[in-house]
Write a structure and sequence with these properties.
Length: 260
């Protein structure tokens, strides 16, 4: 058997083995696995597993990812799809490689894209917790619908199907119930974008609290201070750090006074 023929046979074998392990061959350098596991390696289980780990492409074009983008002075988590890979000096690679330096990401919500080193790119799924337990998803569900929440993707018109999962954006705690069909990267990204949208709507309040964090601890009967505290209760993750610390203190003191 010639080297080429045996490599072709090995590649077919590797593809079968990846499928049997429920791994997607498209995400692997199959030739690399064949070489590392069976040509230079001894074909043992350990060698195979090491070869599979080593030959995984970290991202493929079309993957949905999150990057950090500065918008109006705020560092926002924005989602988009990987378009291509670049070297450190922003050239395209001539072939697919396992360790590209950077990726160019086309953002869903802006007309621009973002070029980022791979170390500053996060797979979108890492940003979300997906709760699948039925009783958890439908806890305190609406009586008028047999206790079942419906899908809130907005993609179903007036009669959405029941929700199957509860998606939680880890960084903010924002939640959305979705059906299985809507539990997709683009729709989860839309939930992740809420942080940026809410921050845009609240940017005047946020800037005031950055300039003067004490405002959040204003008098009990002060209309504006109360407004800020109500806002901080709804969007705790948007409150600037110093104001958040002052508000935590304020709540403790307030409770002490109430309990006294
Ligand atoms: Zn749905």
């Amino acid at each position: 058997m010639s080297t080429n023929a045996s490599m072709a046979t090995l590649r077919r074998q590797v593809i079968e083995e990846l499928k049997n392990a429920r791994l997607d061959p498209a995400r692997y350098n199959v030739t690399g696995i064949a070489r590392d596991a069976y040509v230079t390696g001894n074909g043992s289980m350990e060698t195979w597993q090491a070869a599979v780990e080593k030959n995984l492409y970290p991202y493929l074009p079309g993957d949905v990812v999150r990057v950090v983008v500065e918008i109006n002075g705020f560092q926002e988590h924005m989602y988009g799809t990987v378009r291509d890979f670049r070297t450190a000096d922003n050239r395209m690679y001539r072939r697919r490689i396992l360790t590209p330096h950077s990726a160019y990401v086309e953002l869903f919500e802006r007309f621009s894209g973002a070029l980022r080193p791979l170390t500053e790119i996060t797979p979108e799924i890492h940003d979300f917790e997906i709760v699948t337990d039925h009783s958890e998803v439908h806890r305190d569900g609406p009586q008028h619908n047999y206790g079942l929440f419906t899908c809130r993707s907005g993609n179903h018109g007036p009669y959405p199907p029941p929700a199957h999962v509860l998606v939680i954006h880890k960084a903010s705690g924002e939640k959305r119930r979705l059906c299985d069909g809507c539990n997709a990267p683009e729709i989860r990204a839309n939930l992740g974008h809420e942080v940026w949208r809410y921050r845009q709507h609240s940017k005047d309040t946020i800037r005031r609290l950055i300039d003067n964090p004490q405002e959040i601890a204003g008098p009990i009967d002060d209309h504006e201070a109360r407004g800020m505290r109500d806002w901080a209760d709804v969007f705790p993750y948007l409150v600037p750090a110093e104001a958040a610390a002052i508000y935590t203190q304020w709540k403790e003191q307030h409770n002490v006074r109430v309990n006294a």
